[in-house]
Amino acid sequence: MSLFRRKADQIGQLQEAIVTKARQIRQLKRRALDETQRLDQHLQELQEAIEAAYLRIEQALHQDPQKQMLIKEQLHTRMDPCPRMGEHLLLLGMITARQLMNSLREQKRSGGKLGEILVRLGYVGRDRLQSVIDQSGRRPLIGELLVQSGHVKRKDLDRALTRQESAGGMLGDMLLSMNLISPAQLADALAVQGHMKRLTGYDRQEVIRSKLPEKAARKFKAIVIRQSAGQCVVAAENALSATQIHELGRIVASPVTQVLASSQEMERLWTLAYASDWLRESTEKLRTEQPENSASQTFSRYRSSG
């Protein structure tokens, strides 16, 4: 009987512990919900403050035409730090504060570039937007580059932009998924947009000889294709930041230059540089985990049976 009572007491204690933990979990959930609501409220207040600031800017420019002319002149001559694209267009009087706010909401909802959204919503024409981009020294729109190069027709670009509006994501990825461009064509356009060199060729043995430790290569998503005492050239599918270039330079102990590669080109480089390592690791893993099926054991059994 005493054993039964001890077990019953233990069960009772466990039940009390479960009830206590459940209460604590509910309290934590309430706190997390309260914190989420507080942050949402703070974010909403910040958004409203930004929108109010845009409206004040618009009103001030309308009330003082001379100031607006001065701002336009400074923007065209780049005497002042260049603002973000939406604010740039607002200061130039090409869009209204309401149009900018609507476009930013749409960008938050569906993603993509603000310039493309402004065009899609009909707030600014492509030609006018491209003119501003050219004058401000900003990167040209990827869609426009692909149209200008003849890789994409205007109607197909519009179709891709419509899909991007509902699905979100980057325009280049959308064009690839619709089979309107090849990975190489996208890489060409991105290289032009970013003022970067494209991968044009490499020596297979040099890629194998100069490769980074795989962990570092995966961190930067980059493959060394050429290295000498004074320079290291790496290929990557996306533009590396200045910080990443600096870190890579410390690893290879020389200045680093990047060339842009397509996704298919990077797959070939990964295989070329690391396939032998992958095979060796796979063989070692098989030998350790399944020694009876490893190549060495299979060969030994074959010789013994012979």
Brief characterization of the structure:
This protein is mainly alpha-helical and 306 residues long.
Low-confidence stretches: 76-81, 298-306
Number of helices: 15
CATH C-level category of the largest domain: Alpha Beta
- If you consult CATH, what is the topology of the largest domain? GMP Synthetase, Chain A, domain 3
Name the beta content range.
5-15%
CATH architecture classification name of the largest domain: 2-Layer Sandwich
Describe the global form: flat
- Number of E-type strands: 4
> Total domains, how many?
2
Mean pLDDT: 81
Helix percentage range: over 70%
- Order of adjacent strands in the largest pleated sheet: 1-4-3-2
The CATH superfamily name of the largest domain is: Type II secretion system, protein E, N-terminal domain
Rg over C-alpha atoms, rounded to the nearest angstrom:
30 Å
Distance between the termini: 71 Å
From N to C, what is the helix and strand string? HHHHHHHHHHEHHEEHEHH
The biggest beta sheet reads:
4 strands, mixed
Structural class assignment: mainly alpha
Q: How are the secondary structure elements laid out?
A:
Layout: H1 2-63, H2 65-77, H3 85-91, H4 97-110, H5 114-120, H6 126-136, H7 142-148, H8 154-167, H9 171-177, H10 183-193, E1 197-198, H11 204-210, H12 214-220, E2 222-227, E3 232-236, H13 242-252, E4 256-260, H14 263-289, H15 295-305
Helix pairs in contact: 1-4, 11-14
Protein name: Type II secretion system protein GspE N-terminal domain-containing protein
Pfam families: MshEN (PF05157)
Keywords: Coiled coil
Question: Can you tell me about this structure?
Answer:
71% of the residues lie in helices and 6% in strands. The chain is built from 15 helices and four strands. Strands 1-4-3-2 form a four-stranded mixed beta sheet. Residues 76-81 and 298-306 have low confidence and may be disordered.
